[in-house]
Design goal:
4-stranded antiparallel beta sheet, 8% strand, single chain, alpha+beta
Length: 240
């Protein structure tokens, strides 16, 4: 997760935030009970909620005002059903522009590329070379949330078209939650597959990353590597 002033690296158990001012914050990721994590669709929603934890938890990477703005941006769309069609579209576009402005301000685009480069360096066992600028792993990632967002659009369209019940005030909320859950199930199946062809649905997201990332400077890559090192140290300590 790239931020305007730093990089967040997240594993299943831990998160760490390395800031440009030299600060390093870290914490544990929330863990649901084993039973809900085994239920299809529910487990996907739990994963999404956990991924947002570093942003929304007190003492996390976002301040109170930003948390309130992001929460507003996530909840307000559920009220669009009560607006006339044209007005709803205008408000939705304005809200989308506001959220994009919040998420991609500052050096976020370059730090997004640095985040991907750091993770690729770990996967390719080239951490030291990447720290010294001798290796430049890709700034594009198959596991980026941008790919998930690109998948969510066609999935949500399909869920809406196949919805069998009459439209009611609660329908937009149900369709949104169901679409996210179905997308996460599809996403996890693609990520778990060892077949190269399984990555085909992620190609639109890879293309979109050329817009949502920039080539990072070495200091930006080192920032991401610092957060990565914090997470890896705690993960490896559990295995020792």
């Amino acid at each position: 997760m790239a931020r305007p002033n730093g990089v967040v690296i997240v594993s299943e158990r831990f998160w760490a935030f390395a800031a440009q001012d030299g600060g390093l914050r870290h914490g544990a990721m929330p863990r649901a009970a084993h039973a809900p994590r085994a239920i299809p669709l529910v487990r996907g929603l739990l994963s999404i909620a956990a991924s947002l934890s570093p942003l929304f938890r007190a003492g996390g990477v976002a301040g109170p005002k930003e948390r309130a703005l992001l929460a507003t941006g996530l909840l307000v769309p559920f009220g669009f059903v009560f607006l006339p069609g044209t007005l709803g579209t205008v408000v939705a576009l304005a809200l989308t522009a506001m959220l994009l402005g919040i998420l991609f301000r500052g050096r976020t685009l370059a730090l997004h590329g640095a985040e991907h480069r750091a993770i690729a360096a770990a996967e390719e066992r080239r951490l030291e070379e990447t720290w010294h600028g001798q290796a430049l792993p890709s700034r594009l990632s198959w596991r980026c949330g941008t790919n998930f967002a690109a998948l969510a659009l066609p999935v949500s369209t399909g869920v809406e078209l196949l919805w069998p019940l009459p439209i009611a005030p609660y329908t937009p909320f149900v369709l949104t939650v169901l679409s996210l859950a179905v997308t996460m199930e599809f996403w996890q199946a693609v990520q778990a597959s060892s077949h190269a062809a399984a990555r085909f649905p992620l190609l639109p997201g890879i293309g979109l990353q050329r817009i949502t990332t920039r080539e990072p400077e070495l200091d930006e890559t080192r920032l991401a590597l610092t957060a990565l090192a914090s997470v890896l140290q705690r993960e490896l300590a559990l295995r020792a």
